[in-house]
Amino acid sequence: MSFRGSAEASFVQHLFRNYYEKHYNNPFIPTQFDRREFGYMLFGQKIMVRHLSFRSFEELKKTLAREAPLHVYRSAAVYQYPQAPMEEKGWSGAELIFDIDADHLETSCKQVHDYCLCWGCGTVLESKASKCPKCGGGDVAEVNMVCEECLNKTKKELEKLIDFLSVDFGVEPSEMVISFSGNRGYHLAVCSDQIMQLDRAARLEVVEYITGAHIELRLHGFSLTSADRSGPGFEDWGWGGRISRSCRSLLERLSARDEEVRRKLSERLKPKDLDNLAEVARYWRDSPRWDLLKTGKRSPYLETLINFAVAESASHVDTVVTTDVHRLLRLADTLNGKTGLKACTVRLEDLPCFNPLRDGVVLDGEQSVEVRVFPTPSFKLGEESYGPYGNEVVKLPVYAAAYLLCRGLAMLAKR
């Protein structure tokens, strides 16, 4: 979606310019700054301004204050000539980039805040259609909101990613840069001399390990045959220990009749099979009892349980992003034009208490503005809850109005 008109775009651009002029202080600055490519999208434009380089942060800051762009990007790579066309840049290495987005995760909340809307008459549609059944108009679009449940899920995926990087790959906290995307997830960049030189094939191996793709269980201490009743322990390193701990957690949740676990496992197992599995939980508290899953009536369930444990333990990152050695990613601490929120850098020690829908709010919260809001479900922003709204004029704090304007869900009441 985009702004409903030029008045809305101009209003938000004024807010962005004020941020870059007065509040864009002490932001994240990539290493080897003058060897990075930068780019940005301007309000009202669909083509990115690319192949830019800056000699200093001050030069970049002046450009952002002058242009007040909708989105700002920087390269994961460092180049000999960052301002040159791609084939002439002279690639010298690239950070290892990870992108975690709520769009790629299964969350029940999407049923509540994702919907289709006719912009012509404001009718909410049950499903995507080429024309509105009420007014016959063709201006129908999907609306994808975000909530605390979405972002808590992405944070859990981020925490799993950090564990993989630090424990399995030995990445130091000082080598990781974590940032909120400003919308639906998180970015993590790893920068070290060794990492910078990884080629695409090596990056693919890293991401396949982290996502559990093509995992060979025998290499991690597993045997699915009844002849070998042993298996990895809870404290074992790597995937073996992860799967063991995940199996214990899943069995405990089955025993507690966790609806989500039962629903997912019921795709492969019958209700009575789930009850049989749940009986094992009390024997798994101190150490894994693989023997109870490799013999008797429960042996057919083992592979299903382990596959589910792999999916639960993996970090669901975007493989395409990680393997792209020329990737542009959002510059941390700039504003996201889809929400008006700040793409905050997050220190590792601050991650547990970081709330993106609170900490990402940096636009004016003291002034208010009247906006005409299209049908919008309730949402949280800052310390407040807003909505639900339905084709009505409301007075909102500037940051909340900007959030809806950026999403195309509101228009200025006075144009």
TrEMBL record:
<feature type="active site">
    <location>
        <position position="101"/>
    </location>
</feature>
<dbReference type="GO" id="GO:1990077">
    <property type="term" value="C:primosome complex"/>
</dbReference>
<keyword id="KW-0235">DNA replication</keyword>
<comment type="function">
    <text>RNA polymerase that catalyzes the synthesis of short RNA molecules used as primers for DNA polymerase during DNA replication.</text>
</comment>
<comment type="function">
    <text>Catalytic subunit of DNA primase, an RNA polymerase that catalyzes the synthesis of short RNA molecules used as primers for DNA polymerase during DNA replication. The small subunit contains the primase catalytic core and has DNA synthesis activity on its own. Binding to the large subunit stabilizes and modulates the activity, increasing the rate of DNA synthesis while decreasing the length of the DNA fragments, and conferring RNA synthesis capability. The DNA polymerase activity may enable DNA primase to also catalyze primer extension after primer synthesis. May also play a role in DNA repair.</text>
</comment>
<keyword id="KW-0639">Primosome</keyword>
<comment type="subunit">
    <text>Heterodimer of a small subunit (PriS) and a large subunit (PriL).</text>
</comment>
<comment type="similarity">
    <text>Belongs to the eukaryotic-type primase small subunit family.</text>
</comment>
<keyword id="KW-0464">Manganese</keyword>
<dbReference type="GO" id="GO:0046872">
    <property type="term" value="F:metal ion binding"/>
</dbReference>
<keyword id="KW-0460">Magnesium</keyword>
<dbReference type="GO" id="GO:0003899">
    <property type="term" value="F:DNA-directed RNA polymerase activity"/>
</dbReference>
<dbReference type="InterPro" id="IPR002755">
    <property type="entry name" value="DNA_primase_S"/>
</dbReference>
<keyword id="KW-0479">Metal-binding</keyword>
<feature type="active site">
    <location>
        <position position="318"/>
    </location>
</feature>
<dbReference type="InterPro" id="IPR014052">
    <property type="entry name" value="DNA_primase_ssu_euk/arc"/>
</dbReference>
<dbReference type="GO" id="GO:0006269">
    <property type="term" value="P:DNA replication, synthesis of primer"/>
</dbReference>
<keyword id="KW-0548">Nucleotidyltransferase</keyword>
<protein>
    <recommendedName>
        <fullName>DNA primase small subunit PriS</fullName>
        <ecNumber>2.7.7.-</ecNumber>
    </recommendedName>
</protein>
<dbReference type="GO" id="GO:0000428">
    <property type="term" value="C:DNA-directed RNA polymerase complex"/>
</dbReference>
<feature type="active site">
    <location>
        <position position="99"/>
    </location>
</feature>
<keyword id="KW-0808">Transferase</keyword>
<dbReference type="Pfam" id="PF01896">
    <property type="entry name" value="DNA_primase_S"/>
</dbReference>
<dbReference type="InterPro" id="IPR023639">
    <property type="entry name" value="DNA_primase_ssu_PriS"/>
</dbReference>
<keyword id="KW-0804">Transcription</keyword>
<keyword id="KW-0240">DNA-directed RNA polymerase</keyword>
